[in-house]
User: Fold this.
Amino acid sequence: MQRFGTLSFGHYGPLGGGRQLTAADSMLQAIDLAQGMDELGVNGAYFRVHHFARQQASPMPLLAAIAARTERIEVGTGVIDMRYENPLYLAEEAAAVDLISGGRLALGVSRGSPETVVRGYEAFGYTGSEDPRGADLARRHFDLFLRAIEGEGLAERDPSSPFGTGATGRQRIEPHSPGLRSRVWWGAGNRDSAEWAGRMGVNLMSSTLLTEADGTAFDLLQAQQIDAFRAAWRDAGHAGEPRVSVSRSIFPITTAEDRLYFGGRQDGDQIGVIDGMRSTFGKTYAAEPDVLVEQLKEDAAIAAADTLMLTIPSQLGVDFNLRVIESFASHVAPELGWRSARA
Assistant:
């Protein structure tokens, strides 16, 4: 593990006791938290994307705002659901954010996770999927998105246009960010999807759950997935080394308040059914820092990945989350090989 950041679900709504966290609160607090993390040298701030839910649904304005208020931190998604996206519009927005940030965008995309509605992407106007989960639609959109950010000409120029130069041929979308292609990640929930990402030559975001459940520990399943991804990358002849991230719920307990919230939260892997498939969910780590270090050193997937994303309880506010993150950065991450973005 060389880098770590946070993965925020961006929940908002009632907090209990008559308190309310609004959508505006959620986004403004995310900006403030990212600024604090940037000062600490944390490497990334990433956001889950869900539609028809009280979470982040339109991440690009938020990422642009964070990029404009920070200097080093990577900004990204984990993940954008490609079933819901206009590929060319997403390519324009992603290029704009990448340029604003100076090449700090880590754009995680995938088929997406189960939503709160049935085939919600059809309400967005994207129909024609023959797959009950829309995987065929997501990959068609992703293929066109990649062609767009690679700079392929996608629309015929009009030589008679008063706004053109009289040129002919096909025009690429604008703006264009030349390095963006290398900063695209695919969120994979199983080995087949990870191998496909390797063949496509994009980075890997290994999911917080895996649609596999054969009794193997979650971290070992995930490490096997990472190995399969890297083998597929090499076999496809791609140059360089791809990046790989994994997500974990990790809470260093250093205060009585930490113990109140997270004491007793240490649990094992969970098996359940999601989207109609038996799946394995990773465990929560919550302990004193020295105990966490030893536990995390034994996590095979954390050892195999270069980036660790900490899922954070964003509803608890900026100060609380920043203290948890600072505790991890001070007492745990350096023992796992972390390199501060300030270094």
